[in-house]
Amino acid sequence: MTFVRVCGADELEEDTPKRVELDGTPLSLVRTEGEVFAIHDICSHANVSLAEGEVDDCHIECWLHGSRFDLRSGKPDSLPATRPVPVYPVKIEGGSVFVDVRASLTQES
Ligand code: FES
Prior knowledge:
By secondary structure, the protein is an all-beta fold. The protein has one domain: Rieske [2Fe-2S] iron-sulphur domain (Rieske Iron-sulfur Protein). The chain starts with a strand and ends in a 10-residue tail after the last strand. The site of FE2/S2 (inorganic) cluster (FES) has 10 residues, from loops.
């Protein structure tokens, strides 16, 4: 695994996605329910930033058509999106957030 520092842990506000870019990959970082998640920032339905959506119940909602993606698996739980968005491993160390964008946790089904 290749974890890379993306920001300070104290830069993330609860339930407020933060858009960052790592190795050319746009990410939404989300602190919610005591954990930090990293999900690819582009909706699988159209070219829309998920970081502008709302977070609730460990899901991030696409603001354009309302599909909700599980932050743990990247899978949508509602239409119109049908394909998952990649999610990536996160670790917090020394007050910093690290993400490994080479190791997607998402499984296409
Ligand atoms: S662009 Fe995200 S659900 Fe349509």
